[in-house]
């Protein structure tokens, strides 16, 4: 793991030791009506790692993400974030947890009626009470962090390329200096060069800021180039988890066809490990 390990004097009073998962999901069941989407699912994310989360379309990757973020209700199980059980957290603790997480959603990445600068400032306005000039200064720093020029600040999302939109959305996800970021299909819709550049940026941020990254992706290149570990969702659970080498060695049918199937062979990914 390349990420910077550090002990965690947290702002919510819950100390997470370096070797403890930053996110721990145990026995989580989620359903809608009589349809069970996730059944008794377990998952851990370790501090400083980039975890790639994959699975067939409709397997429930977004449902799990939304459940972790508190946007979907679970029927059973526990979710611990930063060492705290989310169900036992006080309102104030929950707020502080929220401030330590950044999210880049697959769709609706930016508010179309706000400029890039205003988009980045949305979480600042929501959670922090600071003067406008300081917010501007911080937002420009975030722009620089994600490799966007300062002249992107006054632009509206419709004036940006797909790659710039992803970067601006990442800048917004980083607005509050989170410890943990969730990226839902961050490279979808980007050309291969744009996608590779975005992957490099994510790895650089993890290395320099010690970020922990939970990345939902279908992008085999991302999985091979930046993810430390991969978790595969199937049959309503995490079917297999481990390194890319573990994925390449797995005989689980979906994992085998995904990582050693035609597309993977075309990309000659196995040769890169
Ligand atoms: N609010 C909801 N109400 C009812 N069913 C839902 C709801 N949200 C998700 N589902 C269902 O849960 C299942 C899993 O959906 P989800 O969006 O998590 O899949 P996914 O793995 O993220 O797929 P993709 O890779 O295509 O984005 C789907 O069958 C979906 O229709």
UniProtKB/TrEMBL annotation:
Keywords: ATP-binding, Nucleotide-binding, Transport. It comes from the Bacteria. One of its GO terms (molecular function) is ATP hydrolysis activity. InterPro entries: AAA+_ATPase (IPR003593), ABC_transporter-like_ATP-bd (IPR003439), ABC_transporter-like_CS (IPR017871), P-loop_NTPase (IPR027417). Signal peptide: none annotated. It comes from Kumtagia ephedrae. Belongs to the ABC transporter superfamily. This is ABC transporter ATP-binding protein.
